[in-house]
Amino acid sequence: MIKRITSDLELLLKFKPNRLKHIYGVKDTAISLGKKYNLDLRKLEIAALLHDITKYYSYEYNCEVIKKNYKNHEEILSEFNKATLHAFSAAVVAKEKYNITDNDIINAIISHTVGKPNMNLYEQILFISDYIEPTRKYDSCIKVRKIAESSLDKATYEAINDSINLYEGMNQLIPKTAYQARIYYKELTEE
To answer: Is there a contact between 30 and 16 (Cβ–Cβ < 8 Å)?
Structure first.
């Protein structure tokens, strides 16, 4: 299955080499963190490879897929900005095209853009890996990459907090779950 997904990605992103590098960077980072936390590396690899598979699909396509597949579609479409909707459609593609039924993989894909409170390690590692993978060079990423070496929870808080601050500064939609996640991980790291 990994060979098929990789082959599909190579074709789909033939003219988007930086996105492909990003996906492979997320995969390598997730596997590295997964080893540290003794997780199923195959699950992390699949989630990482599929997390951005619908990144360049149209807004209309993402809305259609979300309306068709999520009972809470009105909430999703009213709270999540356009740049984050692909997480939901990518999870649907994982299920429908690749027959992924493992909730660790599906939920990691769904949570990779803004996180959520109390993520399991698969969700948290994909979220952080997407944020800190090697092709990312912005200041927050470099800071969070360093923090992730010693504390996944602190890295998660910093990534969520910095993302919220960025989206607020751009006057973008920010879902309630991101604010809830920020509070959750802040409290967790203060204990």
So the answer is: no
* Number of structural domains in the chain: 1
User: What is the amino acid identity at position 4?
Assistant: R
**What burial class does residue 100 get, using C-beta atoms within 10 Å of its C-beta: 0-12 exposed, 13-18 middle, 19+ buried?**
buried
With CA atoms as reference, report the closest residue to 161 among 174, 148, 150. 174
Number of H helices, E strands in the chain: 11, 0
The amino acid sitting at 180 is: Q
- Enter the tokens of residue 121: 């390690």
DSSP 63-79: HHHHHHH-TTHHHHHHH
Per-residue pLDDT tens listing for the chain (191 residues): 899 999 999 999 999 999 999 999 999 999 999 999 999 999 999 999 999 999 999 999 999 999 999 999 999 898 888 889 999 999 999 999 999 999 999 999 999 999 999 999 999 999 999 999 999 999 999 999 999 999 999 999 999 999 999 989 999 889 999 999 999 999 998 86
Q: Which of 176, 133, 179 is nearest to 160 (CA)?
A: 179
Q: Which domain holds residue 41?
A: 2-190
8 A C-beta contact, residue 62 and residue 39: no
The enclosing domain of 25 has a CATH number of 1.10.3210.10
What gap in Å lies between CA 44 and CA 50, rounded to an integer? 10
